[in-house]
Design a protein that fits this description.
Strand content: 15-25%
Structural class: alpha/beta
Number of domains: 2
Keywords: ATP-binding, Cell membrane, Membrane, Nucleotide-binding, Transmembrane, Transmembrane helix, Transport
CATH superfamily of the largest domain: P-loop containing nucleotide triphosphate hydrolases
Protein name: ABC transporter related protein
Membrane topology: Multi-pass membrane protein
Organism: uncultured Bacteroidota bacterium
Radius of gyration: 25 Å
Subcellular location: Cell membrane
Distance between the termini: 79 Å
Length: 319
């Protein structure tokens, strides 16, 4: 009968639904297994102190004078040089830009400063003390880094900034500073009740702003911006650099950038090429030398001009 056929179809659907669910869960299980293997492999790595047992760990102290790279050489595989004979002094409280082509060694400088790696030759000195002799945990607590892609949790914007730290006064101060310069943006971000996981409900620029506020909230002595403005538009970049300017009073800042306009107002700019420092000076000094930096600047300005013209209406381009 018709009723029997309908019943058969309904029971068939009821039977196959959990089978389909089981298949989907199996794919999730496979992904989770792969992820857990990577996590446990990372947790099984020896600690920094265990990897360098001969190093006497001195307590981290407040920076008072400078960070110095003295003839630093580094290679990830032990044969291909990434940094070669890097000599650089960064006075405390300054903003230093590090620029260069992809693969020139910019991010490696950040990795060395955070003690993820140690140079094969040469040394990094904090107020004259070799970095390898300074306690790793204490040193990293005094540093903060903002990467290209910020990870945000499914919490409020303020909770993503504090990350469980008791910083009520600092949070109010940060929101207050942002309201003075960008009131609409501050109102939107501070009023968000719940972000989507990884911050997918925000634009890439808004995610980077929260990541920068998170880094500054801890009042680090050293703030590293590793291509933090690479994926944002010019307006958002302006907002980010406004926040950086407000943090300059109490923090030494190293801004690693591909776009030269990002660091044009830095106290000094270091230009890397094939792992070597080829130029060093302010934006105007480097342009006056008409060297590698000036060439990069002109090329990027042409790219900006071409993009701007491409976005204009054809009738406007001939005005």
């Amino acid at each position: 009968t018709v009723g029997t056929i309908v019943s058969f179809l309904m029971y068939g659907e009821m039977f196959f639904r959990p089978v389909r669910d089981l298949t989907e869960k199996y794919n999730v299980l496979q992904t989770a297994t792969t992820a857990s293997e990577r996590i446990f492999a990372l947790l099984d790595q020896p600690t920094d102190e265990a990897a360098h047992p001969q190093s006497a760990q001195l307590p981290a102290r407040p920076l008072e004078k400078s960070i110095e790279f003295r003839n630093v050489h580094f290679s990830y595989d032990g044969s291909t040089p990434v940094l070669q004979d890097i000599c650089l002094t960064i006075p405390v409280g300054t903003l230093v830009g590090i620029v260069g082509a992809t693969g020139s060694g910019k991010s490696t400088i950040a990795n060395l400063l955070l003690k993820f790696y140690s140079p094969q030759r040469g040394s990094i000195l904090l107020d004259g003390i070799p970095l390898e002799q300074i306690d790793t945990t204490g040193h990293r607590q005094r540093c903060a880094i903002v990467l290209q892609d910020a990870f945000l949790f499914s919490r409020t914007a303020s909770e993503n900034i504090t990350l469980g730290r008791n910083l009520p006064t600092t949070i109010e101060l940060l929101w207050g500073q942002l309201r003075k310069t960008h009131p609409e943006l501050a109102q939107r971000l501070s009023s968000l009740e719940q972000l989507h996981e990884r911050g997918t409900s925000l634009s890439s620029g808004e995610r980077q702003i929260l990541a920068l506020l998170r880094a500054i909230a801890g009042e680090p002595e050293l703030l590293i911006l590793d291509e933090a403005t690479a994926h944002v538009d010019s307006h958002t970049e302006h907002v980010l650099m406004d926040i950086v300017e407000q943090a300059r009073r109490n923090t030494t800042i190293i801004a690693i950038a591909h776009r030269l306009a990002t660091v044009r107002n830095a106290d000094s700019i270091v230009v890397l090429h094939h792992g070597r420092i080829v130029e060093h000076g302010t934006h105007h000094e480097l342009l006056a030398r008409n060297g590698y930096y000036a060439t990069l600047w002109r090329l990027q300005q042409l790219e900006v001009l071409a993009t701007t013209n491409g976005e204009m209406h054809p009738a406007q381009q001939h005005r």
